[in-house]
Design a protein that fits this description.
By secondary structure, this protein is an alpha/beta fold.
């Protein structure tokens, strides 16, 4: 893939004795935070990713590596074919879902191997479910089912007014005991955060505590993440990148309605 290979070659030729900069882990501290945390729209400042520390411990970013960086690039590239877009989006979704499952509670257990030895391992606690925010959140459902075959998934349909940008709930259906469960809330693109905020309010009305909600997202703007965290300080947000420009075309490209 030309973009990926050219980047590797340029780094290797200029500094062969150091590690590729894309290997840096996004959990590392960073003081280079662009001054855009209070803006909902892209500005003229450099469009650099925002550090995790600037938005608090509720925000968790996947460690950045070449694989994730290339998937992000392909998804953002306007020349990407729909087939490649869906393929790369599904791969990135799977990585986010796997890390989301890693945030769920587990207990220690002991199993017996085929050779008769005892193995000390872990098992996830029961009582988890997924909730997708329609329509783009439905793109993440299969990735969750691929990891948890029998998991129950609820749905919320929320649309924003084009003029006021105020979110309105049109449909919501959850497992009857959702208030007892840990909820993996799925929404791939966090732009303003309004849709997610409204979805969380609906879950709270059904008895779910914000601390039991893990929001799975692919891309987020600083404004979107900050708005959600300010409204619900106990919620956990998991994403691959916080950037002032979000690929808001995701839903249309994924479902072929662009």
């Amino acid at each position: 893939m030309p973009c990926h290979n050219q980047q590797l070659n340029s780094v290797n030729s200029g500094n062969s004795g150091q590690e590729h900069p894309m290997k840096q882990v996004r959990f590392a501290n960073s003081s280079n935070v662009p001054p855009i945390l209070n803006s909902a729209e892209p500005s003229d400042v450099p469009t650099q990713p925002v550090s995790q520390d600037s938005l608090g411990p509720q925000l968790k970013l996947l460690p950045l590596n070449d694989q994730i960086r290339e998937l992000q690039t392909i998804i953002r590239d306007k020349t990407t074919t729909r087939g490649d877009f869906v393929f790369c989006a599904d791969r990135l979704i799977r990585l986010v879902v796997e890390e989301g499952l890693n945030q769920l509670p587990f207990s220690e257990c002991t199993v017996t191997t085929p050779t008769g030895y005892k193995y000390e391992g872990v098992k996830f606690e029961r009582g988890n479910c997924g909730v997708s925010i329609m329509r783009s959140g439905e793109a993440m459902e299969q990735g969750l089912r691929d990891c948890c075959r029998s998991i129950r998934i609820g749905k919320i349909l929320i649309q924003s007014d084009e003029e006021t940008q105020k979110a309105k709930v049109y449909y919501a259906k959850f497992p009857p005991d959702v208030y007892r469960r840990k909820v993996l809330l799925m929404y791939p693109i966090l732009s303003t955060g309004n849709t997610v905020i409204e979805a969380v309010r609906v879950l709270i009305e059904h008895g779910v505590q914000p601390k039991h909600i893990i929001l799975l997202s692919l891309f987020s703007t600083p404004h979107g993440a900050k708005s959600i965290i300010q409204e619900f300080p106990d919620i956990t947000i998991l994403t691959t990148e916080v950037h002032p420009v979000a690929p808001t075309h995701f839903g249309q490209r994924y479902f072929g309605t662009d």
